[in-house]
Amino acid sequence: FIQHFKDATPEADGKSDLRHLFVYDPGRSEHLLAFTQAVMRGPGPLSPGERELVAAMTSKERCCLF
Question: Concatenated DSSP letters for 19-32?
């Protein structure tokens, strides 16, 4: 199943499986993208840069492409 997304979305070359989903069918991922932007850019005690750093460190720790 994942290979189907990868084969269908060569423009997301080398990116995470989630990135392939965004490219494959952007309409189905718009709510997830809006949620992510709200979490990463909305009001809160951490700056957007600090949030990005936490996300990057977490991804690295879990050996996940960010």
Answer: HHHHHH-HHHHHHH
Max CA-CA distance within the chain? Answer: 41
Query: Which phi-psi region, left, alpha or beta, contains residue 35 (left: φ > 0; alpha: ψ -120 to 50)?
Result: alpha
List, in sequence order, the alpha helices (H) in 1-66.
2-8, 17-24, 26-41, 48-61
d(CA 25, CA 8): 10
How high is the pLDDT of residue 30?
A: 87
Measured CA to CA, the distance from residue 33 to residue 5 in angstroms comes to 18
pLDDT of residue 50: 95
Give the mean pLDDT per block of 10 residues along the chain (66 residues): 61 64 78 90 95 91 75
pLDDT of the residue at 59: 85
